[in-house]
Specification:
Layout lengths: L5 E6 L3 E7 L5 E3 L9 E2 L1 E5 L2 E4 L1 H4 L2 H4 L3 E3 L1 H4 L6 H6 L5 E5 L2 E8 L2 E6 H20 L5 E6 L5 H13 L4 E6 H8 L16
Parallel strand pairs: 1-11, 11-12
Antiparallel strand pairs: 1-2, 2-3, 2-4, 5-6, 5-7, 8-9, 9-10
Helix pairs in contact: 5-6
């Protein structure tokens, strides 16, 4: 029987982390293609090239207007002037026919991406990073998300995972995931635990 491969993913607004359970039954963070253990949650366009992670974040210095940031936090939300203002200094956010859209000029023309489309692209890149590192197909993921995510945002994350070819097994609040990593709740004794994020 073939072993299925699953990953744990902390999908953050600023950075994301991919992990697996290793042979010693401990969590091991996977390095991305740049050798880093956390991947900035950014997408950038330069010319006709699309960059993700650190390579995208480095575009902020000379190409901020073509850099998408904060798209994960926009999932499941509606366009507002406040939302557009919060993204000043990055790719422009407009109220388009599909809701809030990032607008970027490339050599081939204008690119318009919703937060959902940007998240799908980013998750697909994380999946391929994990597959390249492990040398195996990823069958699914458990995602750690901030507790502040609404039901609509959680549903949007699940839909984005499916479209990125990364079946979602479960969403776990980040403080719960952190506590589980340290064995909290695995004994019958009462404990008081403080998780700081």
């Amino acid at each position: 029987m073939a072993t299925k491969t699953y990953i744990g993913l902390s999908l953050g607004t600023d950075n994301s982390v991919i992990a697996i359970i290793n042979k010693e039954h401990g969590a091991e963070v996977i390095a991305n293609e740049d050798g880093e253990h956390k991947t900035p949650t950014y997408i950038a366009f330069s010319g006709d090239e699309e960059y993700h992670g650190s390579q995208a974040k480095h575009q902020l210095v000379r190409n901020a207007e073509s850099t998408l940031q904060g798209f994960v936090g926009m999932l499941g939300t509606e366009y507002s002037a406040e939302l557009a203002a919060a993204h000043q200094g990055y790719a422009r956010v407009e109220d388009g026919p599909r809701g809030a859209e990032f607008v970027v000029a490339t050599e081939s023309g204008e690119v318009r991406l919703t937060a959902h489309e940007a998240t799908v692209r980013y998750l697909a890149r994380l999946r391929t990073t994990a597959e390249a590192y492990l040398g195996r197909t990823i069958e699914g993921a458990v995602l750690g998300v901030p507790m502040s995510r609404t039901s609509a945002q959680r549903a949007a994350i699940g839909q984005a995972c499916a479209e990125a070819g990364l079946p979602l097994l479960q969403l776990v609040d980040e403080p719960v995931a952190a506590a589980m990593q340290y064995g909290v709740g695995q004994t019958a004794r009462d404990e008081t635990v403080l998780v700081v994020d």
